[in-house]
C-alpha cells in the first residue's frame, strides 16, 4: 500500500534529534517493514509553542494551500501511484494537522493518526484554533494508534483507538548486549573511566523544562552516594548543557563524564557497557531511552510516571520510584549497586521482555492489520474499522459492560471501580470504563477501553456545585455537551450490560446525564442488563423523599443493586433502612480489594517504616499536619519506633503549593511523596499503617495484616468512614482515632494503643468482592439474555 506520511511537529528528516523525530522514524520503518511504500508528504512544521492566534491562522492558511497543491499533484498521477492512506504522526493542540484531513478527504482515502491527545482546557484560549483543528482531525480518523496507554484518557469518546506498545528495532541492542566486554575497555580508555567500578548511565537531550528538571533530580539523588564506588556517563547535549553541568557540580569531577551528543549507531554499545540506567523521567510520556537501555541488557531505575510503568516492570527489569523523589531514586541506586546478581537477573529479564513485547517486527504486523482494516472499511462504508477489528469481528466480542464512574471529591470510588474493571476483564468480559471525574494519575483499568468525559468535580466538601478542570462552574451548555457525548458513546457501544457506580444511592448531581442515559438503555432493543454498583455504607440522605426516589429508580429501571460489602460486618440496611422493599434485587458481592495486595511486597520501600496514607489528598491536611508533628519527637513509651522512617503519601488532589509546604516541614527521617499506585506493596513491609478510613484503604490494610491506626475523615456530610471504622474497632480489628480528636499527641497515643493490642483480629470477612462481582455479572447476563430469548 502507498502511504502519505506527515509529522506536523517535526519532520522525520529534521537535522535536530529529539524523541519525537525518533518515534516518527520508527513508525516509518515499521510501515516499510510491513511492505508498504511510504513517502514524506510534506515538511510543514505547524507547531506554535507560545499560543499566538495570528501565527496559528497563518499556519492554517499555509497548510490549506499546501493541501490544495498536494491534491493537484496526486490527482495528476496514475491512480496506482496515488497514496492509498494518509498517516499523521503526533497530533495535538500545539501542532495540529492542517494538511492531512483535507488531502485524505479529497482523495477519498483513510486518514489515520499515530499518537494524539486532546486538552479540553485549551478551548477558547490562546491555542483554541489548534485545539479545534485537532478535534476536527480526530473526528475524521479511521484509526488512532496510541503508544502511551495514558493517551486514551485524553481523547474524545468514541475515538477509534488502536493500541500498540512502545517499540524499537531490538536487533542492534541485543547484538551489543552479547558482547559488552568489547565496548567497555574502549569507553574506559577514551573517557578515563575505571572499568572496575559500576557505571551509571543517563541518555537525554539537555534542554530546559522537563529534561533539565530530570537532570537536577538525578544530581540530587546521586550527591549523597559519594561514599560508594560508581561513575556516571551522561550522554546528550543541548542549550541547557551549562545548567546541567551546574546541577552536577555537587558531584566529584572524577565520577562524572559528559559524553555529549552521540550518534544513534554508537548508543547500543554505550548502553551495553553500563551497569545501571538511571533517569527520573519528569513528566516523561514513556521514555524511549528506557526501552533502548533494557533492550541492551541494562536494568533501569526510573520514576513511576506517565507510560513508564508500561516499559519498566518494577522488580523485574528495574525499579520504579515516586515521581521527582531524589531520595527514593538514590535509595534504589544504592540498593542495586550492592546487588550485582540482581542486576544481572534484571538485565536478562529486560532483554527478554523487550524482544517479546516491544520489537519493531511485532508492531509492524499490527500496523499492517490496522491499515488494511481502515482501507477495507473505506471500500465498504457500512463497516467501521472498529467493527472489523479482531476484538469485535463477532457478536461475542461486543462490549459486555459499559461502566459509568463519577468521583466528585476523593478517588476511592475510581480506584474500586478500576479494580472491578480488571476483574471483569479477567473473567472474559469486555469493559468500557467511562470516567467523569478529574483524571487520576496512575489509575490502572487493565485492558478496559478507557473513555474520559470532560471532567467534573465537587467544588468543596458540601457537594453543592460542580466545577470543571479550570474551576469554572459547569453551566447548562457544558452539561448538555457532556450528556450528548455520553449518549453517543452508549449508542456506539450498545453494551450487553450498563453498570452505574453509586446511582441512585448517590450522585444525584449527575442526573442531568444519568436520567437520559438510563432511559435510553431502558428503551433499547435489546434492553441491556442495568446494574447499580454501591459500597457497603451510604451517607445518610438528609431528606426522607430521597429514599423514596432511590427505591423508585431501583424498582422501575435497575435489575439489581450490587452491594460491595459483607452483611456479616455491615448489613446494607444499617444505613439504608428500607432495604426490605428492594431486597430481592440486592446482591452482596463481598468487599472489593485490589488484587495487588496479595502480590510480592516492594523490595525496599516500606520496610520497618511508619506508613501514613491519605487517599486522594483532597481532605488530607489534618492527618498530614498531625503526622508531621508526631514524627518529630516520640515519647519513651514508643522508644522502639525511634529511628524509623516515616513515609507520608498524599494524593494528587492536594494542591502542589500545600504539598510542597508539607515537604518543607518534614524532618530528615520523613519522606513526603505523592500517592503511589504500588501502595499495597508497601503495606506488608511497614511496622505500622496510619490512614484515613476510606473503603479501599481499610480493606487493603486489613488484608495485608499490618498493625493499623485509622483516622476516618468526618467533614461535610461524611459519615461512612467513621461508621465502618467504629464497627471494625468494636470487633478488635484496628485502633480508631476520631478525626475531631486528632492531634499529634492523640495520634501517638493511638499508635501506642495499637501496639498494645493483642495481635490483629482475624475477621471472617468476604474480601473477594472483585472476583465475585465479575462472576455474578456474567451469571446475571446469561440469565437476563436467556429470559429475553
Question: Could you provide a short overview of the structure?
Answer:
By secondary structure, the protein is α/β, with parallel strands linked by helices. The chain contains 24 helices and 27 strands.
Question: Helix and strand layout, with pairings?
Answer:
Elements: E1 2-6, H1 19-33, E2 37-40, H2 53-75, E3 85-91, H3 100-107, E4 111-116, H4 128-140, E5 143-146, E6 161-163, H5 171-177, H6 180-191, E7 199-203, H7 210-222, E8 231-235, H8 241-247, E9 256-260, H9 267-273, E10 276-279, H10 288-295, E11 300-303, E12 318-321, H11 326-337, H12 340-357, H13 360-379, E13 401-405, H14 412-426, E14 431-435, E15 449-452, E16 457-458, E17 466-467, H15 476-493, E18 497-501, H16 511-523, E19 529-535, H17 544-556, E20 560-564, E21 586-588, E22 610-613, H18 621-630, E23 646-650, H19 656-665, E24 670-674, H20 679-682, E25 688-691, H21 695-704, E26 708-710, H22 720-730, E27 735-736, H23 744-756, H24 769-788
Parallel strand pairs: 1-2, 1-3, 3-4, 4-5, 5-6, 7-8, 7-10, 8-9, 10-11, 11-12, 13-14, 13-18, 14-15, 18-19, 19-20, 20-21, 22-23, 22-25, 23-24, 25-26, 26-27
Antiparallel strand pairs: 16-17
Largest pleated sheet:
7 strands, parallel
Strand content: 5-15%
Number of helices: 24
User: Largest sheet, order of strands side by side?
Assistant: 15-14-13-18-19-20-21
The 3D shape can be described as: globular
Alpha carbon gyration radius: 28 Å
User: What is the CA-CA span between the terminal residues?
Assistant: 45 Å
Q: Mean pLDDT score, rounded? A: 88
Amino acid at each position: 500500500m502507498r502511504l502519505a506520511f506527515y509529522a506536523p511537529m517535526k519532520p522525520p528528516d529534521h537535522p535536530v534529534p529529539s524523541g519525537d523525530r525518533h518515534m516518527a522514524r520508527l513508525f516509518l520503518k515499521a510501515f516499510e517493514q510491513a511492505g508498504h511504500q511510504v513517502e514524506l508528504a510534506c515538511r510543514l512544521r505547524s507547531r506554535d509553542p507560545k499560543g499566538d492566534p495570528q501565527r496559528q491562522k497563518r499556519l492554517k492558511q499555509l497548510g490549506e494551500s499546501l493541501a490544495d497543491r498536494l491534491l493537484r499533484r496526486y490527482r495528476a498521477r496514475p491512480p496506482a501511484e496515488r497514496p492509498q492512506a494518509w498517516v499523521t504522526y503526533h497530533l495535538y493542540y500545539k501542532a495540529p494537522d492542517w494538511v492531512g484531513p483535507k488531502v485524505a478527504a479529497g482523495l477519498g482515502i483513510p486518514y489515520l493518526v499515530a499518537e494524539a491527545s486532546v486538552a479540553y482546557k485549551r478551548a477558547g484560549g490562546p491555542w483554541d484554533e489548534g485545539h479545534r483543528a485537532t478535534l476536527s482531525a480526530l473526528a475524521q480518523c479511521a484509526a488512532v494508534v496510541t503508544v502511551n496507554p495514558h493517551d486514551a484518557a485524553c481523547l474524545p469518546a468514541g475515538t477509534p483507538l488502536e493500541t500498540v506498545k512502545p517499540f524499537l528495532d531490538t536487533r542492534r541492542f541485543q547484538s551489543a548486549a552479547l558482547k559488552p566486554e568489547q565496548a567497555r575497555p574502549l569507553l574506559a580508555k577514551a573517557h578515563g573511566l575505571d572499568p572496575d567500578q559500576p557505571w551509571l548511565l543517563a541518555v537525554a537531550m539537555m534542554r530546559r523544562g522537563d529534561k533539565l528538571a530530570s537532570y537536577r533530580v538525578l544530581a540530587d539523588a546521586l550527591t549523597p552516594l559519594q561514599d560508594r564506588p560508581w561513575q556516571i556517563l551522561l550522554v546528550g547535549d543541548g542549550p541547557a548543557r551549562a545548567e546541567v553541568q551546574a546541577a552536577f557540580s555537587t558531584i566529584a569531577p572524577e565520577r562524572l563524564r559528559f559524553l555529549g551528543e552521540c550518534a544513534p549507531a554508537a548508543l547500543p554499545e554505550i548502553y551495553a557497557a553500563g551497569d545501571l540506567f538511571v533517569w527520573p523521567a519528569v513528566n516523561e510520556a514513556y521514555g524511549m531511552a528506557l526501552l533502548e537501555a533494557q533492550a541492551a541488557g541494562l536494568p533501569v531505575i526510573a520514576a513511576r510516571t506517565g507510560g513508564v510503568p508500561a516499559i519498566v516492570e518494577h522488580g523485574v527489569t528495574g525499579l520504579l520510584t515516586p515521581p521527582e523523589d531524589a531520595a527514593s531514586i538514590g535509595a534504589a541506586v544504592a540498593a542495586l549497586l550492592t546487588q550485582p546478581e540482581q542486576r544481572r537477573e534484571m538485565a536478562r529479564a529486560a532483554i527478554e521482555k523487550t524482544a517479546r513485547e516491544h520489537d519493531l517486527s511485532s508492531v509492524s504486523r499490527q500496523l499492517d492489520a490496522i491499515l488494511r482494516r481502515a482501507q477495507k472499511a473505506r471500500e465498504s462504508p457500512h463497516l467501521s474499522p472498529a467493527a472489523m477489528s479482531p476484538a469485535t469481528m463477532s457478536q461475542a466480542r461486543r462490549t459486555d459492560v459499559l461502566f459509568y464512574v463519577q468521583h466528585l471529591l476523593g478517588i476511592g470510588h475510581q480506584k474500586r471501580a478500576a479494580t472491578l474493571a480488571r476483574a471483569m476483564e479477567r473473567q472474559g468480559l469486555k469493559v468500557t470504563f467511562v470516567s467523569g471525574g478529574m483524571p487520576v494519575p496512575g489509575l490502572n483499568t487493565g485492558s478496559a477501553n478507557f473513555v474520559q468525559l470532560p471532567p467534573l468535580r465537587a467544588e468543596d466538601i458540601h457537594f453543592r456545585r460542580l466545577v470543571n478542570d479550570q474551576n469554572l462552574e459547569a453551566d447548562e451548555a457544558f452539561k448538555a455537551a457532556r450528556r450528548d457525548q455520553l449518549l453517543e458513546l452508549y449508542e456506539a457501544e450498545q453494551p450487553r450490560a450498563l453498570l452505574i457506580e453509586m446511582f441512585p444511592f448517590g450522585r444525584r448531581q449527575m442526573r442531568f446525564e444519568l436520567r437520559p442515559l438510563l432511559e435510553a438503555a431502558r428503551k433499547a432493543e435489546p434492553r441491556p442488563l442495568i446494574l447499580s454498583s454501591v459500597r457497603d455504607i451510604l451517607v445518610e440522605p438528609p431528606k426522607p423523599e430521597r429514599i423514596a426516589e432511590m427505591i423508585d429508580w431501583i424498582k422501575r429501571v435497575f435489575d439489581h443493586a450490587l452491594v460491595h460489602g459483607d452483611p456479616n460486618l455491615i448489613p446494607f440496611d444499617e444505613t439504608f433502612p428500607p432495604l426490605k422493599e428492594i431486597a430481592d434485587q440486592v446482591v452482596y458481592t463481598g468487599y472489593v480489594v485490589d488484587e495487588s495486595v496479595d502480590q510480592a511486597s516492594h523490595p525496599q520501600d516500606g520496610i520497618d517504616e511508619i506508613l501514613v496514607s491519605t487517599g486522594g489528598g483532597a481532605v488530607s491536611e489534618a492527618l498530614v499536619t498531625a503526622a508531621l508533628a508526631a514524627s518529630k519527637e516520640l515519647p519513651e513509651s514508643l522508644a522502639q519506633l525511634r529511628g524509623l522512617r516515616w513515609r507520608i503519601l498524599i494524593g494528587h488532589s492536594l494542591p502542589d503549593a500545600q504539598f510542597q509546604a508539607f515537604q518543607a516541614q518534614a524532618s530528615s527521617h520523613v519522606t513526603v511523596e505523592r500517592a503511589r499506585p504500588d501502595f499495597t506493596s508497601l503495606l506488608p513491609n511497614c511496622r505500622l499503617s496510619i490512614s484515613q478510613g476510606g473503603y479501599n484503604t481499610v480493606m487493603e490494610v486489613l488484608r495485608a495484616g499490618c498493625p493499623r491506626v485509622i483516622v476516618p475523615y468526618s467533614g461535610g456530610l461524611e459519615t461512612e468512614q467513621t461508621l465502618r471504622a467504629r464497627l471494625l474497632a468494636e470487633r478488635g480489628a484496628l485502633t480508631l482515632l476520631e478525626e475531631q480528636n486528632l492531634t499529634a499527641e492523640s495520634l501517638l497515643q493511638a499508635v501506642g494503643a495499637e501496639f498494645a493490642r493483642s495481635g490483629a483480629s482475624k475477621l471472617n470477612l468476604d474480601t473477594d468482592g472483585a472476583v465475585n462481582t465479575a462472576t455474578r455479572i456474567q451469571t446475571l447476563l446469561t440469565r437476563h439474555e436467556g429470559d429475553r430469548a
